[in-house]
Amino acid sequence: MQPKFSYLTDLQGSRGGERYSSDVPRNLASDGSPLFARYDLDGVRSAVSPKEISQRPPTLWRYHELLPVQDPAFVRGFGEGMTPLLDLPRLGKAIGVPKLKVKDEAPLPTGSFKARGAAVGVARAAELGITKLAMPTNGNAGSAWAAYCAQYGIEATIIMPLDAPAITRSECALAGADVMLIDGLISDAGRVVGQLTASGAVFDASTLKEPYRVEGKKTMGMEIVEQLGWHVPDVIVYPTGGGVGLIGIYKALLELQELGWIGSTLPRLVSVQADGCDPIVRAFNAGEVEVAGQDDTHTVAFGINVPKPLGGRAVLEAVRATEGTAISVSDRDILRFIGRCAADEGMMFCPEGAATLVAVEALRDSGWIGEGEEVVVLNTGAGNKYPDAVKVELPTIARDAVLDTV
Amino acid sequence: MQPKFSYLTDLQGSRGGERYSSDVPRNLASDGSPLFARYDLDGVRSAVSPKEISQRPPTLWRYHELLPVQDPAFVRGFGEGMTPLLDLPRLGKAIGVPKLKVKDEAPLPTGSFKARGAAVGVARAAELGITKLAMPTNGNAGSAWAAYCAQYGIEATIIMPLDAPAITRSECALAGADVMLIDGLISDAGRVVGQLTASGAVFDASTLKEPYRVEGKKTMGMEIVEQLGWHVPDVIVYPTGGGVGLIGIYKALLELQELGWIGSTLPRLVSVQADGCDPIVRAFNAGEVEVAGQDDTHTVAFGINVPKPLGGRAVLEAVRATEGTAISVSDRDILRFIGRCAADEGMMFCPEGAATLVAVEALRDSGWIGEGEEVVVLNTGAGNKYPDAVKVELPTIARDAVLDTV
Q1: pLDDT value at position B366?
Q2: Best of A162, A348, A386, A406 to disrupt the B interface by mutation (most B CBs within 10 Å)?
Q3: pLDDT band, very low/low/confident/very high, at A405 (cuts 50, 70, 90)
Q4: B242: domain CATH number?
């Protein structure tokens, strides 16, 4: 049989399990839960092997059989994916986790992991004939979706909080998106997007209200496994706002397991939140299945200031099913670890990425992480997109200065 | 014979041609000209083929036979290199160059091509036992060298103009460098570095005052050739400040030619400068061999505000030997093309990168570039490191806004 480019079969409601055709644009299942893409995994297993995948060009499209785009002509993008998996030997040793590694998402287009979701989400939207979409964002998702929408000729309306990183405004506007700043949080932006898209003339591309963004993000999990030689680490630590990254990694692991490309043991998944916005951690600690919204949230890690994540239920499932955990960290520690990682390793993490390092230190101190365990943290974006996160004071010298030398 | 990791043989003065041992740290040749690394290219040809290189991991270290680091234990870094070579179909068509491509250096560590020079320069410095270095920078080179110095445990002193992009200050300081801001230009910073390093206790890592940074940058040229299937484009267009990138690309092309991996025709190399700082363009137009310094220079493309480039002579040689040219562009056009490229292609170029697009349009208009020619421009860094380059005005809406919908 002729191998197919994608083995997508249909969509499935994440709560009730009912199936929907994937041939037309869709948002949520009829019960209001997110839809997940399903694949003919037997077909994938017959069509391709891990070894063949490893010889393909270094972009996330190397996993095309497990992605929803049907026609390779809709694969464009900017060379996204196969970001480095790097050792953090000095920092790891200092916090008692010598096998600490980072999956560094800074090199992606527009400087964050959001490019993965946008690359796949926008390509699939174009393939399904969508010409207008709208979305709320804390900044980086907007930057990424605006860039890909410009490439595919899709009109994008993007609503972001006034407090979102300033550079993300320019990125969205220059890419031709219709951008509005809202004097509120991403949840307020989401409400306005709901209103804008209610008539159906504009597609609602909000997190988990469209089914394909998570497919792009699952490639983080696939790359980690491939880069470790088709082997899983002991622990994966993820900064959680909307939660799609963690949900995507979990989905990847389950698909790889069903394919027989990894064994029966999964890594323990850790959801990290800021203590100023930790609805998932609260629900986890309370033993809840659903995540309740939180009021007056705030954190320097702006990307994870999501007071009511639609994917909260799926995050809790992933964490519990893998015997993982959820933990909140303080802004003070986040800022401290940005500096510590830069000084020890030469890498300037974004605040969200630094939150994972704080969590690893705490979980090692409590014994939850063992000394010999292999731990992968996600640095979800480029620290240099946050010029105001950490202040430095530097000496100034005159143009004709003469310095004392050694 | 056992293949070697590097086929470096020695260093050669770029003016007089005399040879120096590469086993100890060195700055300039005795006549004050830059030193270039030389290799046993016959040895390289016997040891490895382009096809073998193409199967190596996607970092610049895949060219290790042609890089100066002798011991693979000194290869660390952050997964740098093999940046995407992307088509710019819509912009290319609009300016009459349908085969327009960009080598996008934004994904590199610290967000610019400077990481290539730092990756190789710092690794080689560590291998040669250097423990302290100093350098002047317009910002991005400092960010890159500070990051790699942190990784290798080398103490760095970095002097940058007050006007350098603000984020680069934080990147240098957080990585533990000793940073000073000077109320002047990079040439003033260079003078102070010269004074700091005069005693020999601190190594002077200024552009072309150490011989290995250019070796890292030459990998841009190697990647372009490899990504085109070991074939050269018609034209390569480079934004020129210190000029090391263009010199490196030319050096790569000559080495690949001597290896027999490319044919006898080289791409025409174009040096692009801003009209507020264009000493190389002036020297080119005047038929000079040396580049005279310029006063009171200014441009929004801060990375190429280099009033007296030490490598000017080598840039002129490269441009003339390849039947290339040199051209200056206005700040106004640079800013215009940042917006145009973002809207057409979804890519936010840095100002220096956008300068190359302005040049391509002008050279196509004048007929110097033909319609069917394959033209590669270099986007030397991430546009999102320059939040103030382009201003956008955006509407603000209230938290409880109700919008008119379609």
Answers
A1: 98
A2: A348
A3: low
A4: 3.40.50.1100
Q: Residue holding tokens 């002579």?
A: B313
The answer, for A340 touching chain B at a CB cutoff of 8 Å, is no
Q: Is residue A102 in some structural domain?
A: yes
Alpha-carbon distance of B219 to B117, in angstroms, equals 9
Q: Is there a domain that residue B35 lies in?
A: no
Identify the pLDDT of residue A5: 98
Q: Cβ of B348 and A147 within 8 Å?
A: yes
Q: What is the largest CA-CA distance in chain B?
A: 76
How far is residue A104's CA from residue B176's CA, in Å, rounded to a whole number?
20
The interface predicted TM-score of the complex, written ipTM, equals 0.95
Helix (H), strand (E) at residue B115: helix B114-127
State the Cα–Cα distance between residues A259 and B70, nearest whole angstrom.
42
Alpha-carbon distance of B279 to B294, in angstroms, equals 6
Measured distance CA(A130)–CA(A123) in Å, rounded = 10
CA distance A148 to B392: 20
User: Which residues of chain B have a CB within 8 Å of the CB of A402?
Assistant: 195
Which pLDDT belongs to residue B405?
Answer: 64
The boundaries of the domain holding residue A219 are: 85-111+213-385
Q: Which pLDDT tens digit goes with each residue over A243-285?
A: 999 999 999 999 999 999 999 999 999 999 999 999 999 999 9
Residue A370: its pLDDT value, please? 97
Specify which residues B381 forms β-bridges with: B112
Cα–Cα distance measured from residue B77 to residue B80, given in angstroms and rounded to the nearest whole number: 7
End-to-end CA distance of chain A: 74
* pLDDT of amino acid A391: 84
B16 in any annotated domain:
no
Mean per-residue pLDDT over chain A, rounded: 96
pTM for the model? 0.96
Residue B397 lies in a domain: no
| Average of per-residue pLDDT across A191-217 | 95
CA distance B75 to chain A (A): 13
Contacts of B82 in chain A (CB under 8 A): 58
CB pairs A-B closer than 8 Å:
219
Task: List, as ranges, residues 276-315 from A with C-beta within 8 Å of B.
Answer: none
A287 Ramachandran zone, left/alpha/beta (phi>0; psi -120 to 50): left
Which residues, 6 or more positions from B254, have their beta carbon under 8 angstroms from its beta carbon? none
d(CA B286, CA B159): 33
What residues in A contact B149, CB-CB < 8 Å? 346
> Per residue in B292-346, pLDDT tens?
999 999 999 999 999 999 899 999 999 999 999 999 999 999 999 999 999 999 9
Residues A268, A324 contacting (CB under 8 angstroms):
yes
Confidence of residue B355 (pLDDT cuts 50, 70, 90): very high
> Would you place residue B402 in the very low, low, confident or very high pLDDT band (cuts 50, 70, 90)?
confident
Tokens coding A218: 């699952």
Q: What is the CA radius of gyration of chain A?
A: 21
Looking at the DSSP assignment, which residues form a beta bridge with residue A158? A135, A179
CB contact under 8 A, A146 and B346: yes
| Number of domains composing chain B | 1
Measure in Å the smallest separation between the Cα of B117 and chain A Cα atoms.
Answer: 15
d(CA A403, CA B343): 47
Please name the amino acid found at residue A107.
P
